[in-house]
Amino acid sequence: MKHAQIATKELADFVRERAAIEENYAKAMVKLSKMATNGTQLGTFAPLWEVFRISSDKLALCHLELMKKLHDLIKEIARYGEEQGRVHKKSKEEAAGTLEAVQLLHGVAQLLPKSKESYHSKCQEYERLRKEGTSQKELDKAELKSRKAGEALRRAVDKYNAARADFEQRMEEREKRRLEQLERKKELQRLLEEEDSKLKGKSPKQVAPGKVTRAQIEESIRKDQQQKENTDTVEKEKTHLEVPLEENINRRVPEEGTVEARTIEDAIAVLSVANELDRHPERRMKAAFTAFEELNLPRLKQENPNMRLSQLKQLLKKEWMKSPDNPMNQRHKAYNSQK
In what residue span(s) does the F-BAR domain sit (predicted)? Predict the structure, then answer.
């Protein structure tokens, strides 16, 4: 803590000195800008004077901004130093009671062996005098000294027990305060993370429950199955191999049940109402084409195994246009034979 305060003061002094340098540099740039302004504005050097003036003004402005930021940094460092001082003072006050208890326990712990040794020596002295047959007066004195030493030992033991109990109590209280501070710090960190998540549009992390019920498990399984079914029903994006070829409208094949005439003769044949001609061959187109497809499509698949279905149907249409099974071709044949 003490070294941190010294380091903070040294850093503040350094930044303050740097700010003073930037201020002097900015003043010097302002002075140069004035000199450039006072220069001759006529002649060849006029644009150069203008460049010097503008550049000096910009440099002066940049260094003034840097000086302001350095002064703001000095204030931040000062606030940090004051905060560290308060923390140091608070820690010192909290540790004062514990330090006192430690010192008391240490002193009593050193006194206890001395009292014990004194008591044993007095008892041994009394036993020695009694065995030697010393006078009763000397024995009484020795006994009195041993009793006093025993009382001193008991007092030392009581002091040691009391000091130890006080020390343990203070340590427990200090540990409790430390855990409370740690818990508050974690709570603040959690609140900060939740706030950041809300600002970013994300939901905060959910705390995992200690026990999952059967209903929750079944609900989770049901959602997973539903999501899997929805994914399976989504049509996959078609590749270029699956996309059918676009039909050439210039060579379009008429659909079943429709009539197409490209020449005057075909138009006359379509509109003809002669009794011997088939007036409505288009009505038989669909059934005839279906029979033609069932008969010839397997053959085309066998002849062209690498073609797609759309390509096979294109070939089938072309054959259908030329096939004598096509009612439209039968109509044209009848019309031509009539002529």
Answer: 1-239
Could you tell me the CA-to-CA distances from 188 to 55, 181, 183, 184, 202 in Å, in that order? 49, 11, 9, 6, 19
Say how many CA atoms lie within 13 Å of 315 toward its Cβ: 13
For residues 153 and 90, give the distance between their C-alpha atoms in angstroms, rounded to a whole number.
Answer: 39
CATH match of 2-199 with 1.20.1270.60: yes
Provide the H-helix boundaries in 133-213: 136-199
| 162, two tokens | 């009391």
CA-closest candidate to residue 11, choices 84, 92, 64 = 84
- What ranges do the domains of the chain cover? 2-199, 256-338
Cβ-based burial of 259 (10 A; exposed 0-12, middle 13-18, buried ≥19): middle
Give me the residues of the chain with pLDDT under 50, please: 204, 207, 240, 249, 256, 273-277, 335, 339
CA distance 30 to 194: 50
What is d(CA 23, CA 70) in angstroms, rounded to the nearest whole number? Answer: 10
What is the rounded distance in angstroms from the CA atom of residue 19 to the CA atom of residue 306?
81
Encoding tokens for residue 245? Answer: 């070829």
Gap between the Cα atoms of 330 and 339, Å rounded: 15
